[in-house]
Amino acid sequence: MLELSNITVQYGVVKAVRGVSLKVEKGEIVSLLGPNGAGKSSLVSAAVGILPVAGGTIRFEGTDITKKPAETVVAMGLTLTPEGRRVFADLSVAENLHLGAATRKDRDGVAADIEKYLKMFPILGERYHQTAKTLSGGEQQMLAIARSLMSRPKLLMLDEPSLGLAPRIVDRIFELMLDLKRDGLTMLVVEQNATDALGISDRGYILASGSLVYEGDAKAMVDSEDLMEAYLGSGVH
Amino acid sequence: MNHLLRTARNSALPIIVLTAVGTLIYFFAEAYQVRIAYAFFMNLVVAIGLQVFMGNSGVVSFGHVSFMGVSAYVVAILTIPLALKKTQIPDAPFGLGFVQFDVVTAILIALAVTVAFAWVSGLLIKRVSGAAGEILTLAVLVICYVVFNAWIDLTRGPRSLYGIPIASSLPWAMLASAFVIFVAKFFRDSEDGLQLRASSENMLAARSMGVRVERLRLKAWVLSGFLVAIGGVLHATYLGTIGPNSYYFTQTFLIMAMVILGGMRSVSGVIVGTALISVGSELARTLENGPMVFGTKLPTMFGLTGFFLGAVIVLCMTLRRDGIMGDDEFEDVLRNRRASKAAKAAADTAAQAV
Questions:
Q1: For testing the chain A interface, which of B200, B208, B266 should be mutated: the one with the most A CBs within 10 Å?
Q2: From B326, which residue of chain A is nearest by alpha-carbon distance?
Q3: What predicted TM-score, i.e. pTM, was given to this entire model?
Q4: DSSP letters along chain A, please?
C-alpha cells in the first residue's frame, strides 16, 4: 500500500535518513522503531510531503507521490499524526477536529464524522468548545488521533503516540489502534516504546542513525532479547 | 447557522457602538474633533486591514502602509484636475497628464491597482516564513517609499500632490470601517481563516493536515492589501493633498502600536487598540505643546507623541505580548462572562440546596 524505496532526507549537509526502504501492506500495523534521532520522524514527515525528499521514491497505492505536496497526499488517504500531540492548543476541540478535514469538501460528511468521533471519544464532546490546551495529555492525544481520522485516511502514520503519557493512557491508545485496525485502517507507528508497539504490530523495522538495521516479524522481534537490547535499549523503553 | 449571518451578528456590537459615537461627533462636535474622528476611522480601516494578514498568518508586516500609499497616489493622479496637473506633474508617463476620471471610477481603479500590486508582492511574501518574511515586508515599505520619492514625473517626488477633489467625509469613513470590520471577522471565522490561524500556531501540524499554507497566506495578504487600500482612498479624498512621508515609518508605527496593543489575533482587539492609541496620541499631542493644567504651565515636550507610541509597543511586548484582547473577540468575552455567571449561579443554588 505504501512503499518507500531508497529514501534519503537531508537537512543541509546532514543526512537524517540514508537510503531507507520499507513497505506497509493493506490492513497491517507496522512499527518503525529506533532511538531518538534515528530519523524516524524525518522519514514519515517526508512520506506525507512536509519535508522534501533528497533521493528515492515514495509510492502510495501504486501512485508515485514523491514530489506531491501534503494536501494532495492527505487527500489521497495518507495522513500523519505528528509527534508530541501537536494539537492546536489555542483553538477549540471543535476547531481542531474541523482542521483535520482541511482537505475535504463534503460538509455533511464532515459533520457526520465529527458526530462519530465524539461518540468514540466522549470526553471530546464534553470539552467541545474548550481550547485544546485545557485537555490532559491523554485527551490531547485522543484529539490528535481523532483529528487525523477526520481526513478519512486509508493509512495513518502515528509519530510517537505514547510520548509523555502515563502507562495506563498508553494502553488505551494502543487498544484504540487495535480497534481502528479491526475497522480496516492500516497504520505505521513510529515509537521508542518498542515492546508495546511491537505487541500490537504485524511487522517492525528498526532504524539507527538514519539507516535501516533490521526488519522482521513483530512477534519474533519482541522475543529476540539480543535484538531488543542491541538497538532498543533493554527492550523496556 | 449561516456563516454570513453569524458574522453579521458578531460584528453588530462594535459597528453599532462606533457608528453611534461617530454620529454624535459628526452632528455635535467641533470641526477639529470631527477631523480627529475621521483620522480614527481611517486608521481603524488600515489597522483592521493589517490584522487580516498579521492576525491570521502570525507574520508581522511592516509593509502594509505601502498599500495605503499606492491607492492614495493612484486616486490622486487620476482625479487631480488637468490644469493643476499640468503645473505639478507636466511630464506624467503613460499619458496620465491628460486624463481625469470621476472620483468613483478613480477609486475603483486605485483599489484594483493596489490589489494587483498586493498579489505580485504576495507571490514573494508567501514563500518566506519567520524573520525573513518580516524583513521582506519591510523591504516592500522601503521600495514603495523610494518610488514615491524618486519617480518625480509621476508622483512629484518629495513634494506633495494637491488638488485631489475632497469627496470623503466622516460618514464615509464610518461606512468603510463597518465594512472592513465585517470582512475581517468573516475571514477570521471562515475555513480559510481557521486554517491560517492553525498554521500560525503550528506550521508543521497544519501542513501535515493538508493545509495549503502558502495559498492561504497569499489570500490573506491580498485581502488585507485591498482593505488597507480603502484606507488610502479615505486619506487622499479627505485631505486633498498627499506626500510620500504619510506612507512611511511614522504611519507604520502608529498602526503597529494599535494592532499590538489591542491584540493582533482579534479583530475586536484591534478596535480597542485603535481607540486607545487614538485617544492617547491626542493627549500626547496636547501635552507636547505645554498646555495650562490647573493654572500651571506645563513645559513643551516635542516628540512626546512618538515617545508615547514607542513606549506602548515596548510595554506591550514585555508585559502583555498577546495584547489586551488576546485571542478573544467581543462575543467570546460576553459568552465567557455569561458562562461564568451561570456557573456561579449554579454553584450558589447547589450551596443553598445543601
A1: B208
A2: A90
A3: 0.89
A4: -EEEEEEEEEETTEEEEEEEEEEE-TT-EEEEE--TTSSHHHHHHHHHTSS--SEEEEEETTEE-TT--HHHHHHHTEEEE-TTT---TTSBHHHHHHHHTTT---HHHHHHHHHHHHHHSHHHHHTTTSBGGGS-HHHHHHHHHHHHHTT--SEEEEESTTTT--HHHHHHHHHHHHHHHHTT-EEEEEES-HHHHHHH-SEEEEEETTEEEEEEEHHHHHH-HHHHHHHHGGGT-
